[in-house]
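ok here's AAA family ATPase:
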Amino acid sequence: MILLNIKLENFKRYENYYLEFQEGLIGIVGKNGSGKSTIFEAILFALYGELKNKGYKEVIRNSNASIKDVVLVELEFEFESITYKVSREFRGKALSANAKFYKENELITTGAKEVTTSIVSLTKMSKDAFLHTLFASQKELTNLSTRKPEDRKKMIRKLLGLEKIDFIEDLLIKQSRDLKREITAFAEVLLADDEVKVKKEHIEQYSKNKEDYEKESIEKTKEVNSLKLEEVQIQEELKQYILIKEKKQNFASQCEILQNSINSHIRNQSKLNEDVNTLVKRQEELQGLQSIKEEYISLHDSLKEQESLKGHHIRKEGLTLEQTSLREQYLKSKHKVDLLKEETKEHKELIQKEEELEKQLVELKQKIIAIQKEEKILVQEIAGEDKLIANTKNQIETIKELGRDSNCPTCTRPLRDEYDKVLDSLQSTIEQTKKDKILKSKEELESKVKQREENEELFKKVNHEHFTVSKKVNLIESKKRDFIQEEEHFLKIKKHGIKNKEELAKLEQYTYDSSFHKSQIEKQKELKEKYEYVLSLETMLVRLDKIKDELKTTTLTIQDLSTKYNDLELEYKAIDYDEVKHKEKEKQFAWVKREKEEKITALNNLKVQIATIQGQIQTIQQSLDDNEKQLAKVQIKKDDLGDYEKIKLSLADFKTKLNAKIAPRISSFASSMYSIITKGKYQHIEVSNDFDFYIYDEGKKYPIERFSGGEIDLANLVLRIAISKTLTELSGTSTIGFLAFDEVFGSQDESRRIEILEAFHTIKEQYRQIFLISHEIEVKEMFESIIEL
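and the structure:
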């Protein structure tokens, strides 16, 4: 893999950045905080969608970017002579992820997880393997020698990916321990041989008892079936007795009903005769009162005519009064209409003026909003620069607290002569930021504030004038509505007056005499009681013909019902029913039923005993079957335990062989480079199978801790490069063509820096790109190509 170029938008400190990568020994230099390490964070992020530390969402977006701005990382690289491009972007407040993967500019995969899977499949390297193989920091190099032996072994095993074998070995030990515990637990619940024998004997005895009960059950079943057959025969005979009894009872009931009906009709016949005699007498009385009815009806018609005349008279008086009131309303409404018409004549001119003022207010509001947006941007820019100054001041305070003789917090190199230079550089950054950016932004902000305040004052003035005009418009519109309502009211009054005048002309033809009307009412009151009595007699006599017909029908019905009663009585006496034999048959049925139920109870008891024995047999057999299953499970676990023990032995042998292969390879590569860097002073670095480090000095082996700090730093560097080389060979990823080291110069002087660079030149044929990150500006002349940030 060779890196070609990278593009960043709103990624951490980079708002918009594009970088092309050259081949050879490449220096990435810049001051602390300039974003050197961020370049390689972006490379890792493009390939695997994660930063070195997984919690990235709260820090990934540039501080000056808004929620709407997209965070974008695009990396183009060459792999096995084919060009690939991976693009990852995040959008919105939640930073929703999306990714695309191109091969020779053709889209082949989309989706964040899918792209990561394609990258791993292509390079044969996970994120951790990629980090351990191709990247190394000063802290990681220092840890190679300064950590305790056990911690150093863990670190190197993790770099080499051997901790997975350790994990599997620990897992096998735990599984073996769990299996032994389970086998012991199974042994405690298994049945002994004596218990198995006793349970089998119980099954034989229970089976014999079950056969005896089943034979007895067959005999009981035959007896029950015989009784059931006899019960059915008696039940059929009882049904015949019941049918005959019910038939006789039915005829008796019908005879009783007919007799009751005959008696009821006879009583009704007597009552109807009495009613006929009474009504004949009332008929004779009605004939003498017919003249009173005729007189009352004539008087009633006369009163109706007088009521009509009275209504006309009252209506005429009401209309006369209403016309007087309408005349007054007519004059008053006409005056009000003329007045409102005069008061609303300016309405059109005021409406036009109001619209012009509204348009002016909208334009002023838009100007104010635009100026406010510009103010907000300026305030954000000032805040961002203030934050940068605060961070720089914190760095100055940190360096002052550390002191002149302490190590740099970034590269671990002693400050010493660089102390004043670093402080002056940081202070100069603060002053320059204040002069070039903050003061200029504040001047622009003051100008925008003044411009906004002038527009706001003009807005208030126009708004007040608009309010005054609107108030006048509302008042005139209110009067205009009153004018329309009043005009409608005027026309309504006028129309109503004309209608009343026409109606009064029609009512002049009617004359009403109240004295005559009262005398007619008094006369009607005198005749009313006699008239109502005549009406009651007429109502009563309407029933006479109906009662006569009903009397005739009742007489015929009595004759018909008497005939039916005599015929039913003869049929009732003809039915032959023996109640004594019926009761004897019922007693016989009860005895047979009781015998059957006793036999069924005995049979059911036998079945319960059979089922109980069957359950006992099944319980015992289940216990024996479960014991067999548990024995089979124990044997499987014993077989698994044996397999685990074999795997553990094989794995231990594999670890021994792997260590014996890895350690010499690291030693060989590290020794070659160390000899070049030290100009042959030290010929060999040995890495033991337990990953302890030794340096040979004049043919004798010494622990790495014996040597000076500069020599240890050089040894750590070559060891780390050797580990990366070994990892590349082991993983089969020989197509990975670059390495990256962060602040590897450490405390080395200029001559050693040159020696380190020469050592890197020796491996250029194996790695087409070697990136060295440093905040030491003076080393930039030592590289074939330089990226200065």
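+1. The two ends are 24 Å apart (CA to CA).
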